[in-house]
Each structure stands twice: as structure tokens, then as C-alpha cells.
Amino acid sequence: MTITLYYLDNSRAMRVLWAAIELGLADQLQVKSYARVEGKKAVPEMQKESGFKLGKSPFLIDDDGQGGRVEVFESVACIEYLHDRYGSQSSLLPASPAWSQKSRVQSWLAFCETPMTHALPIIYLRWHMPESQASLLAEMEDKLSANVCKDLDLYEDAILASEKEHGAENGYLAGGQISLADLANAFTAEYIIVKKVGTANRTWPAVERWLKRLEARPAYRKALEMGGLHDFSLLDLERQSHA
Amino acid sequence: MTITLYYLDNSRAMRVLWAAIELGLADQLQVKSYARVEGKKAVPEMQKESGFKLGKSPFLIDDDGQGGRVEVFESVACIEYLHDRYGSQSSLLPASPAWSQKSRVQSWLAFCETPMTHALPIIYLRWHMPESQASLLAEMEDKLSANVCKDLDLYEDAILASEKEHGAENGYLAGGQISLADLANAFTAEYIIVKKVGTANRTWPAVERWLKRLEARPAYRKALEMGGLHDFSLLDLERQSHA
Prior knowledge:
The structure is a homodimer. By secondary structure, chain A is an alpha+beta fold. Chain A has helices spanning 13-22, 44-50, 75-86, 99-111, 114-128, 134-166, 180-195, 205-215, 218-226, 234-242; strands at residues 3-8, 29-34, 59-63, 69-73. The first copy, chain A, has 2 domains: 3-86, Glutaredoxin (3-Layer(aba) Sandwich); 99-242, Glutathione S-transferase Yfyf (Class Pi), Chain A, domain 2 (Up-down Bundle), CATH 1.20.1050.10. In chain A, α1 packs parallel to α3 and α1 (13-22) packs antiparallel against α7. At the A-B interface, β4, α3, α4, α5 and α6 of A face β4, α3, α4, α5 and α6 of B.
């Protein structure tokens, strides 16, 4: 049995690949990586070869065990599918009826696109604003940064509270151990911090500690090897700046 | 047993309220509605009374059946929680091992924020761009509309294909019957069409037929009665324009 993952460079596909490896699926995965044109759109081959009309990544293809085909799009749905089908032994999502813990993980899992919703308008502005409007761009970025900073504050508070309750090395988003919530939100936090999108020159030390703990995991490092480009790792950034 | 839903006017809380009613939970729901300040931020009372630090809506509080408290944020997580806990008899999400059908519903469910990610930058521009920059705003809106239109095209194709396969009255996003995917994405499509955000003067007839089918459902109409403001119903818009 092979699960095929269409992986666009520097995309949310990293969330899915990392989750798959954490779930012990590395040997069953076939990863097809694709480049971006000028750092933006996917090369047209991805849409053609995946057959997914929107041409987006991640896109996952699996067989359903009954001769049929499973197609999953959107990174959160891909993660949920992999856990649902192959993760019965995993502790990455608490099982019913631990409703309080389970809904906490699922809330944070769903949250992973919220800071992106606040950060991407800034990216789109940078792409599309005429060069002559540099001061207007700066002014708009400033206004749009407020919500991004609020979201990062929410991460910071959650990690700090968790480090306090569970020990310095066990601060995760939804409690004292890693969950699907961390795998999904790490991409968001890395992206925003490394690209400095809406960060208003602020830093979030607990978020950085949390990211570095996550990035040191063998499954994360293996995902970097197996997948396409992922230019947002804080650990790699540190290495480059010391080189 | 009471489930409390914090409902901000004209927000994604509509998704959750509607889903709760479809799941037969109307009598167990306590809905607390809050206004927006100048059509934007929530009144400060909502954050204070809900105790949810980010002050966002929807926010759901339930008891866990063991003397503990369940707190859920993000509309998709709220919907999943309600279905997971109270929807075992519902057909709104196919059960395992119908992986192909289940992952289709979950992909579309996760997709519900994707068009918002493309539409909200336009809303933020409208809020924050200086009035003197009207022509630049129009130019930027034009550029940002491409992705919104692509997303709406994806809805249109899915509904058309489903109407063709399952009959004119049974065209839903993830197959021939209503699912959680429709409940979540209706808000997105209503919002974009009614506010004309990134629509580039185009129309999507199958999407409009689908929305009107959904809005005619007793549970949707009941949600309009029980919740706060929801100014995006196409049926109500039609009534107003005929009045």
C-alpha cells in the first residue's frame, strides 16, 4: 500500500508529511515534490500530475482498502484522515470520551489557519502593491500587524502556561505532550516568524523555544529530508547565521 | 445539560448554531449574542463574559459529563465536537471505514476557510486604505479577486457535478446529500457573494441555487431566529429587493 503526497515547496504540505512520519507511515509514503514559479504559484505540472483541479498542495491519494480511491485536500483534513485511519495507537489526538482534552487539541488544530488569515493579507500586499507606494505599504502593514501579534500572543501564553504546568521541556499547545495541534501550528508560527509577517519587530521567546523543540524531533528532520523545500526552520536559520 | 454558544453578530458562529440545530440540539442550547462595534470588532463584553482570551466567536462551553468543563473555539472545531459527541445517529459525516466519502466531507469542511483567506485581504484593504487611494484600492481588489473567483469556481463545479449525478435538488458539496461540509461552506459563499468580495462582477448560478436550498431548511431558518444578526442570507436579500 502506498500513500502519495503531492508536496509543493514551502507549503503546508510540511504539516502532512511530518504528521505521517510521526504516525509511523514513512515507509508507505511516496512524496512528489514540485517547485514554485518565482516563489509564488506552483509549477503547472503539479496540477496536471495530481489531477486536483485547484492545483493546490498538499493533496493526498490513498486506496480505500476496498478497491476505491481516497483523495484528500487541505492540510488539516489530510492530517485528520491519516490519524483517523492509521493513528489508533497514537497519542497525538486524545480519544472520546476525553472531551475536554480532545476538543482542546481540535480547537488548536482548527486555529492553525487563523494567524495565516491575518498574515497573508500582508504577503499579498507585498506582492501586489506598486513599488512607488512603499510608505503606504509600511503604514498598511503596521495596521494589519495587530491581529497577527494577538495570535502569536495566544501561542505564547499557551506555551508558557504549559511549560509552567508540565515542566520546561513539555510545553505544548494543547497540554503537556505533543499533539496534532503542534504539528499543524508549527508551520504557521515558523512562517510568520521567519518571514517577519506582521510581527511588528516583536519576539515571542516561548514560541521560539517550542518551535526549536519541535524542529529537533527525528520525524521533523526526516520530513525535511523526504519532502520538498521548507525554508522556515528556526534551527536551520540559526545554523546559517552562525556559518 | 446546557451547551452555551457565544455568538457574535455576522460571524462564523452561524455555522455552529445551524449545525447544532441540524443535530437536534436546539433545546439544549443557550445562545448568547453580542454586537460588533462599527461592524468590526466584538463588543468588549463578549470577551469578559466568555472568558476566552482572544475574545473571538464562536466559542462553545459544555460539560464533559464527568464534572469537568469543555471549551471549544474555532467554528470548524465546534462543529466537529458537536458531531463527534452528539451526532452518532447523524448522516452529516460518513463514518469510518467509508474513507473515500468521509475524507471528501472532511476536505471540504477544512476548505471552508480557504476562500475566506482570499477574501479577507480585500475586506482589510477596504477598512484600512486611505480614502485618497480609491483607484489603487480598485486595482488591488482586481488582483486579489483571481483566487476568490477560482475558489467559487471550485464550488460551482462541485455543485454542478453533484446536481448532474444526484438530481437537481440534491446537489451538495460532497455528494448527493447534505453534510457538515455544506454547513461550514455556506457561510463562506454567502459572505463573499452578498458582500461582493473578490467576485469581479461574476455570478455562480449553481452556488446560488445550492445556497437557497440550504437557506430554506428549517434548521437554517431556526438558527436565524435563535442567533444574533446574520446579514448574508440570499433568500432575505431577495425578499428585501422585492419589497
